[in-house]
Amino acid sequence: MDQLSQSVFPSSLTSALACAAISPNLRTILMFDASPEIVQLAAKTMVQMLEVVTGDSIVSVTLGTFEAEDDLWGSLGLGGESETEPFSWKPGLLTGGQKDSALRLVVIPDLTKLSLAAARACVVLMGADVAHLERHGQQDSWQPNCCWIAGCAEREVGMVSPHLLDRFALRLSGKVTLNVDRTTVILDWIDQGELGKETKPEPLTREICDRLKKARLISPQITPEAIARILEYTNSEVYSPRREIALARLALGYTRWEGAGEMTVGKVDAAAKMIGLKLATRQQQTEDLPDVSPEPVISQPREPQTREEKPKLTKPEPPIVREPVYQSDEPEPQPTIQFTVPTNPYPEDQAPVEREAASLRLPSRRFHFKAAARGAIIGVEKVANFQDLALVRTLLEAAKFQRIRQGSTTNSNRLRLSPTDLHSYRRVPVAEQMLMLILDHTCLQDCNWLEELLPYLSWAYVERASICLIQVGAVDARHELRAQKLMAQSILVPQITAGIEAGRGKATPLAHGLDLALQTLRHALQHGRSTIQQAVLVIISDGRGNVPLEASRLGKIVPPVGSKGVKDALQVAQLIRGLDGVKAVLLNPQPQQYGDLPLELAEAMGAAVVSIPLIEVGEVA
């Protein structure tokens, strides 16, 4: 299969990229459902267009999951140009060349996996008129000159901060459909020896280059009807002035791209079609759309057939069916690549929220007395205690003032340190608390358990606690004689929600579920490199476990069973009671039979008991 190239881009996508190249305010582009290859291809095509518009070379920068503050903004390094300056300032990915007004193209293959430091930098720089930097003694200000292209899966848009999404003015679709299966494509790549080769776009045609150069010199007039049409497109339930401004700028850029001197209603409609916007109020569009296609629209003739031609439509001849005997000698057509049309440029309005409320802010630490250095390093900061010292940064800070501190002393080879030189690492925050939920799906049908569980889920969301869900007796369990465990960093992970809402199964391996909880709590609280300081254990069960622990481990029932399942559950519960840092709560579903079993389980575990209200007969109906 031929490589992806600029020629496979549809005219609407090419026009949208050209509008962004012409208009600096549209150079924040978000491509939904675009693979990293498509994002890189669009970025390389954008580089060619920007070079034609600006006349300068463009530098590309890629942001991923590991960039820290020093990588983005700059840092001090050894090895200056002169001997008198042993240290030199090394600019970062987003600051280098900005003083020379050099345009940078920032490529983000996956917006959902962007590091926290990079996401905060994007919010600061996108659309800003002036940027200020105060770092490591450096003070600088400049006018940001960047073009941003990012990819994001539409189903994962709920994981991205709304403040970051709001910065992207131009929303496009990067989803690609192939008329062949993936296996055929891979085999073709292997046969042609092109697997792993870098995708390169075709050079821009002379026609596109001439249109880009002419578009820079055009200043269209905006009609009042066009402004009214923009308001009709953006008059929705979710109001944002940025969306109105973005559509107006895109329509103005499209007018310049088409070489027109006036922005009409047709230009607004064409711009809205590029990004998938639809009118808020459905109405007949009677305005002329001469700019959609360069050819004039010709109305259909009024059927100039005579009366003698009508009898020809009486009875069509049946088609001749030919069975293929031999394959055709003609070469098969090459697989084609098609871009889908955007459906909704703002899917975050209906997307489920899968992020924290303050996803761009570092969470506050609750256990300051035991702040372990476990997270990934994202920068340095002034020391707050003598833990996790950044030795290199401390030595660099002290070296800047050695001439002043040493003065005329004879021991000039000794390095003099000051408390102001001390720096420690700034690390990614890790979860210090855990919510462990043991959910017995076989005892939930007669009580309002969700209402009683909601406060604990809300606590986990607010505290950004990690989640451990242990399902007992779930209908979709991989083995009905065993419980299964789900781990997640946040309560917003969809697998946790699906696990809580799972239906009831046939068996109740309660003892195995408690044993999984015991092993997980021991590892989280007592492991040498553990960061969990407190665990909240919430169990919803009626205490009636009918699967012994040995049967769960073997994967088969060994008769006789009797009450072994209940006894094993109580023995494991007593082991959980001996763990430090665990706060246990049992939500009692108040079963009609053997109502004392939940109380015995809570007593063995040392857990507080909260009764779950039963569902009344009228509520069931």
Query: What is the CATH topology classification name of the largest domain?
Result: Rossmann fold
CATH level-four homologous superfamily name of the largest domain: von Willebrand factor, type A domain
Q: Show unreliable segments.
A: 1-7, 282-316, 321-337, 368-372
For the record, the count of structural domains works out to: 4
Give the termini distance in whole angstroms.
60 Å
Mean pLDDT: 79
- Under CATH at level 1, the class of the largest domain stands as Alpha Beta
Shape: globular
Strand order of the largest sheet: 18-17-16-19-20-21
- Helical percentage: 25-40%
What does the radius of gyration come to? 33 Å
Main beta sheet: 6 strands, mixed
Let me know the number of strands. Answer: 21
Number of H/I helices: 19
CATH architectural designation of the largest domain: 3-Layer(aba) Sandwich
- Secondary structural class: alpha/beta
Q: Note the beta-strand portion.
A: 15-25%
Description:
It is a single chain. The longest helix is centred in the N-terminal third of the chain and has 19 residues, at 36-54. The chain has helices at residues 11-22, 36-54, 69-73, 116-125, 162-165, 182-192, 206-215, 224-234, 241-257, 265-275, 391-399, 402-406, 449-463, 494-500, 510-526, 549-554, 564-577, 597-605, 617-620, and strands at 28-32, 59-62, 74-78, 87-91, 104-108, 131-135, 138-142, 146-152, 170-173, 176-178, 221-222, 262-263, 337-339, 377-382, 423-427, 433-440, 466-472, 484-488, 534-540, 582-588, 608-611. Helix 8 (224-234) crosses helix 9, helix 9 crosses helix 10 and helix 15 runs parallel beside helix 17. With 621 residues, the protein is α/β, with parallel strands linked by helices.
